[in-house]
């Protein structure tokens, strides 16, 4: 499987326009650029604050994860977990709680791969504040998934894991098929790999497939959904099961001029710093119009709710 093609390069150089108040002077609209790691953290937080993404994952943890966790470890006294792109760690700790409930008294070695230093710092702070982590050890690798893979191969490390999770992170991976193949090879016998990715029933899928011309070239992620991942798994002849969970994202503020939260959410959606302030007016209008289409969003009590449905793909060892 090849990630969906990126947009053709668009020339979004700084635009020089006549000042509406004084035609004798000129002013410059800054050119568009991608988010830095720090800016992404802020934009992502705005997304989380206005979406049910984490509540959706909580439902999965409640309904499905206990059964998955119960089958891990094969009676061993220690269970090894690897989080790939774990971010600030909230979901990791919730899954560890489920594992502790399924295997009381078992030691847990939790390793984390996360390249963003701000996320690593926030994760460590969360661990320091969290109760009930007796018997759980944490090891952080401030690396990308590809850097970790390279390090493992260069040092000839053969560590295996009982549970590996890749939550909403494959959009930033260059070689998705080989990344999945590598981490699948890191599973112990009867281990499980969990991939959480946007569903093909989500508004993202429609936006990326049908309205891609409305998105800027500064968005550096790959446009992939669950169908792309399951196609890779089938090609690798790996068994899996998909669980679909509904999730929504209230994007109403994205249509309110000058709203700070709306600005951050549009930055997250486009991967672009200050999209509303730097994108050409025609591109802004096209994207806002696309977001309102029924394939992307619904209206509820006067609010615009973008469909953020998730697919939880449980992969067998």
UniProtKB/TrEMBL annotation:
<dbReference type="InterPro" id="IPR016673">
    <property type="entry name" value="HHMT-like"/>
</dbReference>
<feature type="binding site">
    <location>
        <position position="53"/>
    </location>
    <ligand>
        <name>substrate</name>
    </ligand>
</feature>
<feature type="binding site">
    <location>
        <position position="308"/>
    </location>
    <ligand>
        <name>substrate</name>
    </ligand>
</feature>
<keyword id="KW-0489">Methyltransferase</keyword>
<dbReference type="GO" id="GO:0032259">
    <property type="term" value="P:methylation"/>
</dbReference>
<comment type="subunit">
    <text>Monomer.</text>
</comment>
<keyword id="KW-0949">S-adenosyl-L-methionine</keyword>
<dbReference type="GO" id="GO:0008170">
    <property type="term" value="F:N-methyltransferase activity"/>
</dbReference>
<dbReference type="Pfam" id="PF13489">
    <property type="entry name" value="Methyltransf_23"/>
</dbReference>
<dbReference type="InterPro" id="IPR029063">
    <property type="entry name" value="SAM-dependent_MTases_sf"/>
</dbReference>
<keyword id="KW-0808">Transferase</keyword>
<protein>
    <submittedName>
        <fullName>Uncharacterized protein</fullName>
    </submittedName>
</protein>
């Amino acid at each position: 499987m090849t990630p969906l093609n990126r947009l053709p390069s668009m020339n979004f150089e700084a635009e020089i326009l006549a000042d509406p108040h004084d035609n004798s002077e000129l002013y410059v609209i800054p050119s568009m650029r991608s988010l830095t790691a720090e800016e992404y953290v802020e934009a992502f937080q705005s997304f989380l604050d206005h979406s049910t993404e984490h509540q959706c994952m909580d439902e999965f943890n409640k309904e499905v994860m206990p059964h998955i966790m119960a089958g891990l470890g094969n009676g061993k006294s220690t269970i090894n977990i690897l989080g790939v792109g774990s971010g600030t760690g909230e979901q990791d700790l919730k899954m560890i709680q489920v594992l502790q409930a399924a295997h009381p008294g078992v030691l847990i070695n939790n390793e984390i791969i996360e390249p963003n230093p701000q996320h690593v710092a926030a994760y460590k702070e969360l661990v320091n504040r969290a109760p009930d982590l007796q018997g759980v050890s944490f090891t952080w690798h401030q690396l990308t998934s590809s850097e970790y893979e390279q390090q493992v191969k260069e040092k000839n490390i053969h560590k295996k894991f009982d549970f590996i999770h890749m939550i909403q992170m494959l959009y930033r991976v260059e070689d998705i098929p080989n990344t999945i193949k590598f981490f699948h090879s890191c599973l112990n016998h009867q281990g499980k790999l969990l991939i959480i990715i946007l569903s093909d029933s989500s508004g993202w899928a429609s936006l990326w497939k049908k309205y891609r011309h409305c998105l800027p070239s500064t968005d550096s992620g790959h446009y992939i959904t669950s169908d792309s991942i399951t196609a890779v798994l089938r090609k690798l002849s790996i068994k899996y099961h998909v669980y679909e969970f509904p999730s929504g994202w209230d994007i109403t503020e994205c249509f309110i001029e000058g709203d700070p939260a709306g600005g951050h959410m549009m930055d997250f959606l486009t991967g672009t710093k200050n999209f509303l302030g730097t994108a050409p007016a025609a591109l802004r209008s096209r994207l806002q119009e696309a977001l309102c289409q029924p394939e992307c969003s619904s209206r509820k009590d006067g609010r615009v709710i973008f469909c953020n449905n998730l697919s939880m793909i449980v992969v067998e060892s």
